[in-house]
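Sanity check. The docking grid for T4K depends on where the pocket ends up, so I'm generating a full predicted complex first rather than guessing from homology. Inputs follow.
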Amino acid sequence: MEPFSDPIYVTRPLLPDLKEITIELQKIWDSKQLTNNGPKHQELEEEIRRSLKVPHISLFNNGTIALIVAVNSLRILGEVITTPFTFPATPHVLAWNGITPIFCDIDDKTMNIDATKIEQMMTPRTTAILAVHVFGTPCEIEPIQQVADRYGLKVIYDAAHAFNVEIAGTGIGNFGDISMFSFHATKLFHTAEGGALAFKDPNLKQRIELLKNFGIKNEEEVLMPGINGKMTEIQAALGLVNLRHLATERAKRAKIINTYIEYLSQVPGITISAVNGNMVHSYQYFIIRIDKNKFGISRDELYEKLRSYNVFSRKYFYPLCSDYACYKNIPSAALSNLPVAHKIVMEVLCLPLYGGLEISSVEKICEIIKRCGKS
Ligand code: T4K
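Predicted complex below; grid placement will be based on this.
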């Protein structure tokens, strides 16, 4: 089989017709309002709030700053229990708030923090749980909340991968104290860079808004050491246009996912993450897990093989955050504490998924993968 003539990346951003964007840009040019809670920002905030089915949201210039503000807004200190199997931003936001991340092992099926192991990671300094709905698969919401309630901990969800995910009709952003969504270019819904916090407590809105705008209350009062987390009008305009195309993008991705499942689900040594029947999928990532003994070659070997065919899959999230130089000396980062995470991080491969990917290309990727295996 010939390699693809052009590289196939793990994702490509949804890019609507430029004309649609320029119409919106013209309005921004006419208004001369480029940032600081302008009309496009306000319109997008309300549209996203409705789309996520949450009571309150606040838009941000990116998901990482949003998460830093989320932690700060809840006055979290000391130690926070989190997952090692995530993007670096998750533990980093704790470090940026002067908090020690405590790594808890993950569940073999969901690949999210293992709720049954949270309690044993607690110390008198524990103040919160920062869990990630990794690859858009919801965490075990109820057990996590039960532990949090028992010990008076805050719960923050990193929902960077979980835009529009719902459990039995409830938007995923309704759980815990605050959820963060990322609108980075690699996400299903994007504003090039961007993000949002969703929360239930209406009193949080004021503090979050202050924190994202330097703590400025008015021209003569600054109430707290805030940061600059504001989304621009240009980002918001891109978001408003992208929202119009979201349903179509999701439908295309659903077709691609179904094709992958059709071709790969019976291949020995490949496991596909199952989607629970009562949830709405994020259509954000397509993940396979490779069992070297049953498949024939390792995840790393398959990754290299795919590269030789010009297919750039990704080993998200290798290495584990607990293995980064800045965290590896924390006692909870020890391999013995994280056996499941260490196994999973060697198995996971993220395959290309984006609306513009031709079904014939998906079929060819599957064929390459199948030929790499034993059968
Ligand atoms: N929490 C979690 C769990 C996260 O996954 C993330 C971000 C965050 C927090 C932080 O949210 P933000 O602050 O980013 O809003 C990418 C993204 O940069 C990152 O946002 C995302 N997670 C992560 C999972 O993926 P990389 O290092 O893999 O990006 P990169 O540049 O290698 O892009 C991947 C592929 O996408 C490229 O091979 C080609 C394609 N691409 C990428 C960009 C940026 C494009 O076609 N066009 C583009 O503009 O991190």
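Relevant for the grid: The chain has a mean pLDDT of 96.
Also worth noting: The first strand starts at residue 8 and ends at 9.
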